[in-house]
C-alpha cells in the first residue's frame, strides 16, 4: 500500500503555466500541497483549472493564506477545512488548507502550509498547524502529514520543532540533493514533507520532470515523498 505526497510553491501561477502543468503532472502525486495558489481575481477558477489540467482536483483551500490541497483520482476526500492562522499586524496573512483523504485504505490528514519570513510568526503558525492536523487525524483515524514552504532550513528553530513532531521525510529516504530554492540555482532546502507515525518513507526528493520545465514553472522546486503503512513484523 503506497501513497505519493507532494508539495509545490507555484508562485501564484505568474510564470510559465504550461510548464507548471507539466511538472505537476510529472510529480504523479496522490495528494499535493500547494503554496502561493492564486488568491486574487478569479482565484477559485484558476486553482481549479490548474488542478484539472494536471489530472487532479481541489480538495481544500480558500483565498486567504494562498494554500491548497489537490488530490488525484485515486484519493477519496473524506473531509476538508481551511484555517487562517494567527494574524500578525504588518505581516502577510497565513493559513492552512487541510484535507483528510483515503487512498487504497490508507487515511491521511494532510495540511498545506506556507510559513512567514518572520521567525516568531513562523514558530507560532507551525505550532497551530501541528495542532490542527493532529486534531483532524485523531477525529478521522488518519496519519497526520504536513507539507509546504517553511521559509527556513533544517537547522533552524521552526523546522526543528516541526521535525520533532512529525518525521522529516527527506532524511529518512533521500533521493537527490534535496535542494528546493531557487529553482534555477537550488542551494537551500526550504520545502519539505513531514509524516506522522505509522508510515514508512520509501523515498523523498525532487520530481522526475524536464529540467527546463522545472526552471520555468516557478521559483521553487517540488518535493515528492512515497510513503506506505509501516510493516509490522512478528518476533
UniProtKB/TrEMBL annotation:
Please indicate if the UniProt record lists Nucleotide-binding as a keyword.
no
Q: What is a single molecular function from GO for this protein?
A: endonuclease activity
What are the alphabetically sorted keywords of the record? Endonuclease, Hydrolase, Nuclease
**Domain (Endonuclease/exonuclease/phosphatase) ranges:** 6-220
Q: What is this protein called?
A: Endonuclease/exonuclease/phosphatase family protein
Native source organism of the sequence: Nonomuraea longicatena
Q: Which Pfam families match?
A: Exo_endo_phos
The organism's superkingdom is given as: Bacteria
Amino acid at each position: 500500500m503506497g501513497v505519493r505526497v507532494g508539495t509545490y510553491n507555484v508562485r501564484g501561477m505568474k510564470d510559465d503555466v504550461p510548464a507548471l502543468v507539466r511538472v505537476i503532472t510529472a510529480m504523479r502525486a496522490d495528494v499535493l500541497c500547494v503554496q502561493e495558489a492564486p488568491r486574487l481575481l478569479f482565484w477559485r477558477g484558476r486553482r481549479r483549472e490548474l488542478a484539472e489540467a494536471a489530472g487532479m482536483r481541489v480538495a481544500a483551500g480558500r483565498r486567504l493564506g494562498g494554500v491548497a490541497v489537490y488530490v488525484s483520482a485515486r484519493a477519496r476526500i473524506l473531509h476538508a477545512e481551511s484555517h487562517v492562522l494567527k494574524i500578525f499586524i504588518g505581516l502577510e496573512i497565513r493559513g492552512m488548507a487541510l484535507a483528510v483523504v483515503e487512498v487504497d485504505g490508507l487515511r491521511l490528514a494532510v495540511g498545506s502550509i506556507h510559513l512567514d519570513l518572520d521567525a516568531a510568526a513562523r514558530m507560532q503558525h507551525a505550532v497551530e498547524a501541528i495542532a490542527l492536523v493532529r486534531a483532524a487525524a485523531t477525529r478521522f483515524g488518519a496519519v497526520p502529514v504536513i507539507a509546504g514552504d517553511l521559509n527556513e532550513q533544517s537547522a533552524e528553530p521552526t523546522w526543528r520543532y516541526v521535525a520533532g513532531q512529525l518525521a522529516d521525510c527527506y532524511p529518512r529516504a533521500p533521493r537527490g540533493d534535496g535542494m528546493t530554492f531557487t529553482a534555477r540555482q537550488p542551494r537551500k532546502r526550504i520545502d519539505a514533507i513531514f509524516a506522522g507515525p505509522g508510515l514508512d518513507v520509501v523515498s523523498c526528493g525532487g520530481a522526475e520532470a524536464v529540467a527546463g520545465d522545472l526552471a520555468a514553472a516557478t521559483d521553487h522546486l517540488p518535493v515528492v515523498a512515497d510513503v506506505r503503512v509501516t510493516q509490522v513484523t512478528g518476533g
